[in-house]
Amino acid sequence: MEELIRLRHELHRNPELSGQERATGKRIRFFLSRYQPHELYSNIAGEGMAVVYRGKEPGPTVLFRCDMDALPITELSDFKYKSNTPGVSHTCGHDGHMAIVSGLAVRFFENPLEKGKVILLYQPSEENGSGAKESIEKLKELDLMPDYAFALHNLPKHKKGSVILGQYTFTAASKGLIIKLTGRNSHAAFPELGINPAAATAEIIQHLLALPTNFKYKNFVLVTLIHVKVGEVAFGTSAGSAVIMATLRAFDDSDMHLLSDNALKTSTQIATKYGLAIETEFTDDFPASVCDPHLTAVVEKIASEQKKEVVYLNEPNRWSEDFAHFTGVCPSVIFGLGAGENHPDIHSPTYDFPDDLITDGVDILESIARKITSSESFLKS
What we know:
The protein is of the alpha/beta class and 381 residues long.
């Protein structure tokens, strides 16, 4: 336990943003070298790794994913292990997730699996939505696609050590929408000689924000305005261009498709009405995390056996997780591990992963691995 805490503190002290997790990967490889995995594959989606522990006999392959990247947030804490990198911090708890999955390496080295195979996936670039999809492609190339995949995420505002499950969607789908409008500049004294996109921008914003109520959806949808820019700061010039950025969010992937189509159609119609050229682009695309019901039952049963409180969400979390890409390619579950009712929320500058959650996380993931690899029929009972 103490070595896992030390590992977490070292990772916390040295956070790296999405796509920049090189030193993080080196630290993890150094830690794992003491626990002799059967195979270790580097360069997964960048600086990620797939670490393999094999049982003595054939059996199912189970993957456990942890995320590696930090956030562009200035940490506000006085911990001895606080971030050494200005403006970057592990304020989502990915340092704790890595420590938990690294704890599995310790357990499987000290007490090897009887059957099957476990893959510990250290995945980069979760926060920008690209890591899981790229990792899946690399795992396919390496013939390492699992039969089942699991991930956990710490969740403040829930009882510490509790297990939080979806029914069966755990996190929402989301994507970024970028709209670029092009008109024609003119002197500010003669705006009638140009095509200023300001009025169209205002109208598009109003219609985007009204999309959740102006159309019928099966479930919750949301549009959040993120950024707007019209022209440049030049009082002598009437603007000739504009950029609008918004985040689209939905609990259901089919609703996300409909919301996306409605956003594009509405924006294009308004731009055309004002004589503007329009370019649109989607980015940071996360599907909904739709968890496998049978695997969800496995997690619930094991949590109950370990005397952990089990909570089913009334509705999915509004935030998104790129582990959702795994839920689309193999039976998978992502679940929450309660970080404490009064614990600071993730993505806040005072957040820090609770060290005493590490053992809770290792215990439940190890039990999942041993249960599934020793008896595939358990999932079908």
